[in-house]
Amino acid sequence: MQFSQAKQARRDLERLGNRALPYVLLLGFFYGSTLVVSRFSVGQYDPRTYISLRLSLAALAHLVLYALSRRKLPGDGRLWKLTAVLGIIGTAVPMTSIVSSLQYQSSGVTSLLLTLNPAVTVLLAQIFLPDELLTWRKGLGVIIALCGAALLFLRGETGLTDFTRADWRGYAWVGVGILCGSAAGIFARRYMRDLDAWDVASIRMFTAALVLMPVTYFTVGYDLSNVNWIGYLALIYASFIGTFGGMWLNFYIVKTFGATPASQTAYVIPVVTTILGALILDESVTGGMLMGMSIIFVGISLLNSQPRRPAAETAAVISSDGH
Predict the structure, then answer these.
(1) SS3 sequence, 169-236?
(2) Which of 186, 197, 312, 313 is the most buried (most CB within 10 A)?
(3) How far is CA 265 from CA 209, 269, 308, in A?
(4) Among 318, 304, 309, which Cα is nearest to 121's?
């Protein structure tokens, strides 16, 4: 009986994964193509100006959706305070840092480094989440993934034909983005598990835009004299497809299929950025980049893998999830 239940549970999991695959691929395309578009945009915008406008347009889209759905913005003070922190450390700072890195390296290299986010999150979880235990499997996955990133740096990979050696600032900006993004994930898991995901996503966008707008105004301003019509189209695409559309689709995947399928997007993004970057922006793809990608993917796969569950436990999990 237990064997048949476990077998059916595995079938249900496989069926769920197959149903989620088109959405995961689409989300990977949204995020990956937006990174390529952002790489183009740094030639016309200052990163702070670009991200500030992008967040503002995405926040406007959230407001429109609230209006159309006749859903009121929540008035919970605790929700706004916690989400404001999340908006700063998890959205405004990481997005600005990641786009800043694109001044020094290709979208493909940046996307490869961003796949290290789960590895850094695991390390931070050991400090700030006492219920997260570092198993040998996770530890080995972290080491392998970091070795892949070290290979890229030691080889001086930039993905750009006009940069012969890596500029440390590109890797440093990505590092800031990863640290802040991972810290935001830890913060959310520790203090925000009981909050509505869509409200959090929306308020996070509002607060990130509100914080970054004055910072941009008093530092670099909003001079758009160098932006042509393609630059404006790039901004619109990144705002509504990459930021608003990506967040909405990620929310849908997590809500419908679970967090695990959503996390698989990390494997799609570097492939999309590498291909589109080479085709559209003439970015280079080297053997070292492919080797680093392979090593990082092995590490992250090991990090995400789970030990096989006993038959009864597997069936119980499927039953409790309602799938």
Answers:
(1) HHHHHHHHHHHHHHHHHHHHHHHCCCCCHHHHHHHHHHHHHHHHHHHHHHHCCCCCCCCCHHHHHHHH
(2) 186
(3) 25, 6, 23
(4) 304
Tell me the three state secondary structure of residue 164: coil
In this predicted model, what pLDDT tens digit does every residue of 181-239 receive, in sequence order?
889 888 888 888 778 878 888 888 999 999 999 999 999 999 999 999 999 999 999 99
Considering only the C-alpha atoms of the chain, give the largest distance between any 2 of them, rounded to a whole number of Å: 71
Token pair 């931070």 is found at: 124
Give me 210's structure tokens. 């509100």
In this structure, are residues 83 and 200 in contact, taking their beta carbons and an 8 Å threshold? yes
CB 170 within 8 A of CB 110: yes
What tokens does 235 get?
């901004």
Q: Rounded to an integer, what is the distance from CA 25 to the centroid of its chain? A: 14
> How far is Cα 310 from Cα 206, in angstroms, rounded to an integer?
44
d(CA 172, CA 111): 14
* Alpha carbon distance 87, 250 (integer Å): 17
pLDDT tens for each residue of 49-61 = 999 999 999 999 9
Please tell me the distance from the alpha carbon of residue 88 to that of residue 80, in angstroms, as a whole number. Answer: 12
